[in-house]
User: Which sequence fits this backbone?
């Protein structure tokens, strides 16, 4: 059997503390902790987390992997069961918290954190496009409060930012939209349109001045288009690989304008996708797939190294409660003899 020195060209170092800038594959003995450690860069993988209390699809999500909110959506029950339910995730378990004031499904992606969030748009209990709403509600960690509405009511739009500086773009009314609106904590203001109008779109961004719009329904097909927002206008950048399928809609998105993740969705209106793609600020890369294909899911996450996928549906006409956690990036391991 080859030794570590034969493989790496050096002996295992003995160090009083972990190195400040290790390289992938490096192994050392920490003489203070009396353990052997190693460093590697995880390309990314999904792990199964605890399920939501209520199976639901077409919901809004916001927050980070360890502190997220899922709200609204469509859950099993009588026809037009547009939900007001809200659940909070603490990194381990989901807890039911206070409901939305207005139950609805097909909300736009939400914005903010578990203590200061924003939910907007959606489909009210009804059966016509007149029920596509611009209603917006602000979350303070305990209760929802109705605030000023979007100028254009819509479903399944992209969204990102904070509860005082949010962005809403695309979606449907039911036609695919290019309209973009910014939120300043009090009002929504119409601004420059997307270059490509699209429904069921995804997005990511920590603020309303630097955001990314990707995927979506670009009539008459699923799209792989990606656009970058600089606070004033949208610029087309490199397309997604879209899992090799040519395009996707109704998926999930998380991260920022330079470090994003897109996952799930559908590729043709029928096939539920399990693909995941990671954005590095320039290009999309296919990475590890979801445990199973799903669309109309909730999403949360602050970067392409940490994200959350929850709820949705898998094509069997059954809403899901399952949760998946994405992790990627550098990690230090402690080796044991077990």
Assistant:
């Amino acid at each position: 059997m080859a030794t570590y020195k034969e493989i790496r060209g050096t002996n295992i170092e003995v160090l009083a503390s972990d190195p400040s800038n290790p390289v992938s594959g490096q192994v050392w003995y920490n003489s203070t902790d009396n353990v052997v450690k190693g460093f590697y860069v995880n390309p990314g993988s999904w792990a199964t987390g605890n399920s939501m209390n209520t199976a639901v699809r077409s919901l809004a999500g916001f927050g980070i992997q360890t502190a997220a909110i899922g709200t609204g959506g469509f859950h099993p029950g009588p026809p037009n069961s547009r939900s007001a339910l809200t659940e909070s995730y603490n990194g381990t378990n989901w807890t039911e918290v206070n409901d939305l004031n207005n139950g609805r499904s097909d909300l736009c992606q939400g914005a903010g954190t578990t203590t200061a969030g924003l939910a907007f748009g959606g489909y009210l209990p009804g059966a016509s496009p007149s029920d596509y709403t611009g209603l917006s509600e602000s979350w303070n960690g305990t209760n929802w409060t109705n605030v000023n509405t979007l100028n254009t009511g819509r479903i399944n739009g992209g969204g990102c930012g904070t509860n005082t500086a949010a962005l809403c773009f695309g979606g449907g009314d039911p036609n695919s939209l290019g309209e973009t609106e910014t939120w300043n904590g009090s009002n929504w203001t119409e601004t420059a349109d997307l270059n490509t109008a699209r429904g069921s779109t995804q997005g990511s961004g920590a603020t309303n001045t630097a955001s990314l719009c990707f995927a979506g329904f670009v009539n008459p097909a699923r799209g792989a288009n990606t656009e970058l927002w600089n606070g004033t206008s949208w610029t087309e950048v490199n397309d997604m690989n879209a899992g090799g399928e040519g395009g996707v809609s109704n998926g999930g998105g998380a991260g920022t304008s330079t470090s994003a993740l897109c996952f799930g969705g559908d590729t043709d209106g029928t096939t539920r996708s399990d693909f995941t793609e990671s954005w590095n600020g320039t290009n999309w890369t296919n990475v590890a797939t979801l445990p199973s294909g799903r669309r109309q899911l909730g999403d949360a996450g602050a970067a392409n190294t940490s994200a959350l996928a929850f709820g949705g549906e898998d094509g069997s006409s059954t809403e899901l409660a399952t949760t998946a956690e994405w992790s990627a990036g550098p990690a230090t391991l402690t080796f044991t003899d077990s």
Q: What stands out?
A: The chain has a mean pLDDT of 91. The chain has two domains: 4-42+329-335, 52-321.
